[in-house]
Amino acid sequence: MQKDRNIILADSIKRLLRRGATRSLQNILSKTHAADLSLAFRELSKSSRLTMFNLMSDPEQQSILLSELEENIFLELVPEINLDEIATIFENMAADDAAELLGHLDEELSDAILEKMKNEDSLEVEHLMSYGEDTAGSIMVPNFIAIKEDMGAKDAIAALQSNMDVEMPFYIYVVNEYGKLVGVCSLRQLVVVPPETPLKEYMATDIVSVNTYTDREEVAEIVARYDFLAVPVVDDDHRLVGIVTVDDVIDIISEEATGDILKMAGVGEDYIETQTIFRGTRIRLPWLFTSFLGGLAAFFIIGGFEESLEKYTYLAAFIPVIMGMGGNIGTQSSTIVVRGIATGRINIRDIWSVVGKELAIGVILGLVYGLFIGVVAKIRFFSEPLSLQLAFSVCLAVISSMSVAALVGSLVPLLFEKANIDPAVATGPFVTTSVDIVSVYCYFMIATLLLGI
Amino acid sequence: MQKDRNIILADSIKRLLRRGATRSLQNILSKTHAADLSLAFRELSKSSRLTMFNLMSDPEQQSILLSELEENIFLELVPEINLDEIATIFENMAADDAAELLGHLDEELSDAILEKMKNEDSLEVEHLMSYGEDTAGSIMVPNFIAIKEDMGAKDAIAALQSNMDVEMPFYIYVVNEYGKLVGVCSLRQLVVVPPETPLKEYMATDIVSVNTYTDREEVAEIVARYDFLAVPVVDDDHRLVGIVTVDDVIDIISEEATGDILKMAGVGEDYIETQTIFRGTRIRLPWLFTSFLGGLAAFFIIGGFEESLEKYTYLAAFIPVIMGMGGNIGTQSSTIVVRGIATGRINIRDIWSVVGKELAIGVILGLVYGLFIGVVAKIRFFSEPLSLQLAFSVCLAVISSMSVAALVGSLVPLLFEKANIDPAVATGPFVTTSVDIVSVYCYFMIATLLLGI
Hints:
The structure is a homodimer. In chain A, 66% of the residues lie in helices and 6% in strands. Chain A contains 21 helices and 6 strands. Chain A has helices at residues 2-19, 22-31, 34-41, 46-55, 59-68, 71-77, 83-91, 95-104, 107-116, 119-129, 136-139, 153-161, 187-192, 216-225, 246-264, 277-304, 306-311, 319-343, 351-380, 387-418, 423-450; strands at residues 145-148, 172-175, 181-185, 210-211, 230-234, 240-245. In chain A, strand 2 and strand 3 form a beta hairpin. The longest helix of chain A is centred in the C-terminal third of the chain and has 32 residues, at 387-418. The model of chain A has no long low-confidence stretch (mean pLDDT 88).
């Protein structure tokens, strides 16, 4: 339903653009939320987007639109906009969003925009840009409420009312005379305590905070775990310097999940669905190279068993099912472990119990499907002299392929995590490819031995 | 770092439990957030968990712990707790969490608990349980602030202060005399407007709301898109009946992502990493059956080309690389499309442009890797009489396999989405298996034709 609404919106915009109905377009623009416009923008041509953008009269709406646009549309649109106008828009943007978006632009353009912006705004944005990518510092906003620990409740409420440009006072942070974060209290507490009691007498002191260089994924995990609306960010001297709000955390969680999914599929986390065929090809080409090398290895392994194949041609017919069963259970195991690590359900300390369980499941499922396939082999080649040996080889090959796959699939991501390498990157192509090689090798070894070639 | 903290916590608890140091345990419990305890609980034995739970003295902390526990630990723990105590804990729980948790229990136990609870609490919970699973109704909470449209700002602030059991007044909703939602205003507005002005004169009226039966995924999408802290839920008469808050939305987004990942890996979305080997095996067994059937199909296809294989044994050696390249690009395409649909970046209306682009990428990558593999084949079998035809067959097979895989991988999830079937379920095993079958068939057809067998 949501999707349909955006298409209807895009269609009306296109119709009005064709008719040049500027007044009606401005009317639509003023009534539509920028987040909805960003979806409709996808359906428009490059020149229509610029026309629409220039018709917008509210820099705040323009700034939200820019931060909601997909990256490639954003990169195409911004250089077309008048420099004075774009600087005004960035001044109206939340500092963390401005820092992130400017980071995506060419350095030349982003410097030019910062130059044009009011000094107070550009300094704040440049300050955020100085923190490393993916850190709490780069996504924090300075719009928090901090009140001195000696202040009474009544004065605190007065201070709050004069501070109403902070959209929503999530939490009231309490700092000491050096600006160090010492506590937190709620609006509710301020209302119920005696008006003169200093905050330090009833504030909560077991406060959870993050550092400016804390990884954004860890920040998201903390906000999600404690159901916070925001988490305070402190510097090395424990001075309160910003907060990370829950709306940014939602974006982080969704982006990290998408990144993990794309990495596991061997696409690379930066793949964007809407880019050109050429860029899509270039990004995906190297990820398939592992699979190509694995295929080559399997080719040479099978080539080494040419004699066996010449004697028993039908050995070849079982290659797909043995590879397929191993590949699929390997994907199951590695996905379960990678996602378990990401959600915190699986702990690196439990490495042997996790791998042991996966291996046990692999062996059991290998026995089940090995038996199935062995029976099929026995029935199909009933009249052949060595049909029982063949059935037994195939059965053993499935068991070993599925056991090895479950072992490799669960062990590899855990070892990568231990070595501080992203387990999601490791998992997709690496696991599938190594399982393919091992499966094929085991199969031909077992068959050659049992058939007495 | 977060993970290490929980392990240290679990280790201290274990040590104190062994020593029977009740006082120290109670001290730890009172100082630790229930969300952290839930992580430490994972590391404890069944009986230690019960001991710890009974040592907790605060029903509110107990209620948060229960709602944070993993489902299987929760299901094991609850029947062991005294019924009166568990009823008190559920009375202290947010109504939406209570409804969700009771829904996981046996009907008999959940009825017994509801029976023991205070009437006002159990009615509220039963009301929520009456809404369908995964709807906005089942996850909403009744703790919202609604003020009549005729009220002045001053009276509204007074009403707010007397209503401070609502933890954080995210938004102030405005209703008419029939309880219908007509607008929303912010705390900031209340403070700055003249004290007697009725709310309806300055409230925002373009309010986004959801219905009680709106799917929770759509609710999450709306909250994420507009950066809301909560979204109002209305019934069929547009009466305000609850709100869904951002902390629940975070859980939904994370759960949906995990569900999609597990479905795509062919595990089933309900797989939990911590369950027993037996249950793990039972859940994963049927998902591998597609792959088994696909393997059997490939077996009979290759069997049909026995004559070709007898003449050119080395044809078998190329099976893995042809299947592998097809399988991997198919996974890339289907993952990109499934995730694109989930995040709203890919629209079902653009089906032909998406599939066309994937097909183009598949053909280009097929040409690249087909050429590589063809060259390898030519070099390896240089002295054979038909080495050029062989190289050409292998090259064509890789091209067709990769093109078909990109086509199937992108088309299938879009068609499933169009037919209202979850594309993530469809994608994993279905795409891989059908790609395997088509790849093998094309390969042997092409080789048989070109080698003139």
